[in-house]
Every structure is written in structure tokens, then in C-alpha cells.
Amino acid sequence: MDERKNFAVAIDGPSGAGKSTLARSVARELGAVYVDTGAIYRTVGYCAWRRGIDPGAAEEIRALLPEIQVTMDYDADGLQRMYLNGEDVTKEIRLPQISMYASRVSALPEVRAFLMDMQRDMARRYSVVMDGRDIGTVVLPQADVKIFLTASVEDRARRRWEELKERGTPKDFGELLEEIRQRDYNDAHRAASPLRAAEDAVYLDTTGNTFEKSRGQILEIIKERIGQ
Ligand code: DC
After folding, report:
1. CA dist 139 to 30, 121, 201, 212, Å?
2. What SS3 state is found at 199?
């Protein structure tokens, strides 16, 4: 360990548990940088989609990697922006069809290895609140605080339904429920860094919670451990 004063908070969990909104808000409160690692995988998923590559075609996805550059920065409002070969794709990676592409390409160990350095580099340079699926287990096993955030599949589908409606891209609730179940299955059953709680993670189930309640619980967990 170096003598850096940076701290790292890892927040892992399934899709739609509220990780990103909570992590962003908590990072702001703590003066840390929020890193959305799902956006990084989405950028590779988006690239496959745009080039018409089947996300399950492992050989083609592998062949794509040497040709692409995935980078990120933060705009004046502190929003994480994603770039694919220098092109800002921050908006495009949120298209509903990209969720499944991201989930599929993220199952490939080569994709995970390709994106590892940029994630670790952020934690070397800044205090971070980083959310994803394998942050506490693989990316930052030395994180100061690890939280595994989850909620019932119905609660998560409902939140996603509300979010998409607000964004102007509504989707059928039953379809969303099925998609979330499928993504949970993909993310938890892949061989490479499957979604699971780190042994030293605090498990937090937010089913039925208000945002404020979950936020308060997370801040309490963090403050207990790093005295921020
Ligand atoms: O968090 P999200 O829904 O934006 O992530 C999109 C997909 O990326 C998700 O289905 C699984 C994958 N992912 C991952 O494998 N590891 C991470 N650390 C973050 C996301």
C-alpha cells in the first residue's frame, strides 16, 4: 500500500437496485469521484451493436477490442462522459437495447481485462465511490468499504420502468421484469467475475425503501468505516 489518503467505496449489486443514483449522491456528499463502471461496459456493448455484431459472438467481440479505445472524463457538472474512439457516446449507451449487449459482452474475460486498468486507475488517482458487479471482489479487493446493494426483482423492474418513462423511452413492465431476470442470470452465472457479494461486503436490501432512507444507510456504513 502507498501512503495515499484516497479512499475507495465499492458498491456492487444487480441491475436496478439503485446503485448509480445512490452512489452518485453519496460520492457528492463525501467529495469523492463517482465511477459508473456499467457505463464502461455499455460503451463496448454499444460498439458491438453499432457494428451489427452479435454480442454473443465471442470471436468477433475479441477481434473488436484492439480496434477500439474506451475513455472517460467528467464534464463541468461532474457527469461521467464516455468516449468510443474519441466520440462522445454518453447518451447512446443508455439506449434500452444496449443493456443486454453490455451484459453479454461483459461475460467475456478479454473484455473485462481490457477495461480493468481504466477502472483501477481512477481509484489510484482519486477517492472514489465505484459501482458495478465485481468492484469489491475483483477490481478493488482492497476497497475501504464494500456494499452489496440489492432489492426484489419486482422493485427493481418498477424503478427501471419509472426511469424509462421519465426519459421518454417507456417499456412494458412485464418485458422489463423478464429482461432484469435474464440479466441477473447472465451476470451471476458467467464464469468471468460473476456478480456476487464480497465476503467482507455489507449486504443492504433496499426493497421498499425511499431513496433518502437507502442513502442514509449507505452513508452510515461508510462513515463507520472510514470516519468521513
Ligand atoms: O450497471 P449497468 O446496468 O449499466 O451495467 C450494464 C452491464 O454491464 C451489466 O448487465 C453487467 C455489466 N457490468 C459488469 O459486468 N461489471 C461491472 N462492473 C459493471 C457492469
Report:
1. 21, 10, 14, 28
2. coil
**Half-sphere exposure (Cβ direction) of 93: Cα atoms closer than 13 Å:** 24
Atom 2 in ligand 1: residue holding the nearest Cα: 38
Strands lying side by side in the sheet with 80-84: 70-74, 80-84, 87-88
CB 131 within 8 A of CB 20: yes
Q: Is 103 in the pocket of ligand 1 (CB under 6 A)?
A: yes
Q: Which domains does the chain have, with CATH numbers?
A: 9-226 (3.40.50.300)
What average pLDDT does range 187-213 have in this prediction?
Answer: 93
| Whole-number Å distance between alpha carbons of 118 and 106 | 15
Tell me: the pLDDT tens digits for 158-188? Answer: 998 998 899 888 999 999 999 999 989 988 8
What distance in angstroms lies between residue 197's CA and the mean position of ligand 1's atoms? Answer: 15
CB atoms within 10 A of CB 209: 17
- Nearest CA, atom 14, ligand 1: 133
